[in-house]
């Protein structure tokens, strides 16, 4: 008959993983051999441990829910719920619950390198149309003297005397459960299990040195300020000559004298005399593609926006480009000589715009009042 693992832990069949964990923790505190020496309590503790190992595994729990027993055919823990090597299974569980830690054997001296970041300043035209640059970077590279081994030529790493090559040392601590044995990385070899008696004279045993080198980067058209380009494997080489991290190139777009950028659209401002705005004119504007002729229609008002289609920045992903928006500002003369003033007064009379402001409705006024309003930004 299949074991009632839910009943052993005293939880419902629909219990969550956290509820199962709490139930086992409660039983472990009551039945652990270091706390309760009663043989019956030890048997119950073994059953609780086996039940937790089953119900905490989604695949084994599914077998239980289907009416089977994942341990009935001699699976892991069927004969010994604590594992074959010195209560190994129990050690994993107790580590998770009560803070014990274990390095689980020596770790490799060779480790992954860190990522690196470099800033690249570009002009607007370079971010718009793309550019290829050679960058000088200062990162860790593999030591050519020892090829990353960290040892002097003709020498080799030796087994650590402190941990005897295990990479970990054990200590016994007293807790509410009694004496608990914990493991930690060996302080002499940093968990690698070996030491370097004769380090490489070039890298000092690290297996890497700092060096300046040149890396090429291709900046695609349409990048924006703050974007990063990833160069795989061009970052810092890891300790022991481990694989290099990535190099990230961060784009910084320099301010432009004429254009401001909003996404893929560009904006600029041009100023026109009052007469040119009234009569209409054409002007030449320098764009990213060269000089462009812009037609200003007669009667153009202040803050009119003239859009030049597909004269902005190319889209980074996809086809097409943004637009160039030309903002027209109309300037009003502040000083007039006698002849100019006479001509403007004559124009105002011809247009019926020479009446005082007080005799017009709200928003009315003569030519000079409108000029004043335009000058004052009304």
Walkthrough of the structure:
The protein is of the alpha+beta class. It folds into 4 domains: 5-98, DnaJ domain (Helix Hairpins); 116-151 and 205-253, Urease metallochaperone UreE, N-terminal domain (HSP40/DNAj peptide-binding domain, Sandwich); 260-331, Sandwich (HSP40/DNAj peptide-binding domain); 338-375, no CATH class. The chain is 24% helix and 27% strand. The protein is built from 9 helices and 15 strands. The protein has helices at residues 5-9, 17-31, 39-55, 58-65, 88-98, 124-129, 274-279, 338-350, 367-375, and strands spanning 116-122, 131-142, 158-159, 168-175, 178-185, 194-195, 208-219, 228-231, 247-253, 260-262, 265-273, 281-287, 290-296, 304-308, 324-331. It has a 4-stranded mixed sheet. α2 (17-31) runs antiparallel to α3. The radius of gyration is 40 Å and the shape is elongated. Residues 73-103, 358-364 and 374-378 have low confidence and may be disordered.
């Amino acid at each position: 008959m299949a074991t009632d693992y839910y009943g052993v832990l005293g939880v419902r069949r629909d219990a969550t993983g956290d509820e199962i964990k709490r139930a086992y923790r409660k039983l472990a505190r009551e039945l652990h051999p270091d706390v309760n020496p009663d043989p019956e309590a030890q048997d119950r503790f073994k059953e609780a441990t086996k039940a937790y190992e089953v119900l905490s595994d989604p695949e084994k729990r599914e077998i239980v829910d289907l009416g089977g027993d994942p341990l009935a055919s001699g699976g892991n823990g069927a004969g010994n719920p604590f594992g074959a090597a010195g209560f190994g299974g129990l050690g994993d569980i107790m580590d998770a619950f009560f803070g014990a830690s274990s390095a689980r054997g020596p770790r490799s001296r060779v480790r992954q390198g860190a990522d690196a970041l470099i800033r690249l300043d570009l002009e607007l035209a370079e971010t718009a149309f793309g550019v290829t640059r050679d960058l000088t970077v200062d990162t860790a590279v593999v030591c050519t003297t020892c090829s990353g081994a960290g040892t002097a030529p003709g020498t080799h790493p030796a087994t650590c005397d402190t941990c005897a090559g295990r990479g970990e040392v054990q200590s016994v601590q007293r807790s509410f459960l009694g004496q608990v044995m914990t493991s930690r990385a060996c302080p002499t070899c940093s968990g690698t299990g070996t030491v370097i008696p004769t380090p490489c004279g070039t890298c000092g045993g690290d297996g890497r040195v700092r060096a300046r080198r040149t890396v090429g980067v291709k900046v695609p058209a349409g990048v924006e300020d703050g974007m990063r380009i990833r160069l795989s494997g061009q970052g810092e080489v890891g300790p022991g000559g481990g694989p290099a991290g990535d190099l990230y190139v961060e784009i910084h777009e320099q301010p432009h004298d004429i254009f401001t950028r909003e996404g893929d659209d560009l904006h600029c401002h041009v100023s026109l005399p009052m007469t040119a705005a009234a009569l209409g004119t054409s002007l030449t504007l320098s764009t990213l593609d060269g000089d462009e002729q812009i037609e200003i229609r007669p009667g153009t008002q202040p803050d009119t926006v003239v859009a030049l289609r597909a004269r902005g920045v190319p889209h980074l992903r996809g086809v097409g480009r943004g637009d160039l928006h030309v903002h027209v500002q109309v300037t009003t003369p502040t000083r007039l000589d006698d002849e100019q003033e006479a001509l403007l007064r004559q124009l105002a009379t011809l247009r019926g715009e020479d009446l005082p402001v007080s005799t017009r409705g709200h928003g009315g006024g003569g030519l000079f009042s409108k000029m004043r309003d335009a000058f004052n930004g009304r």
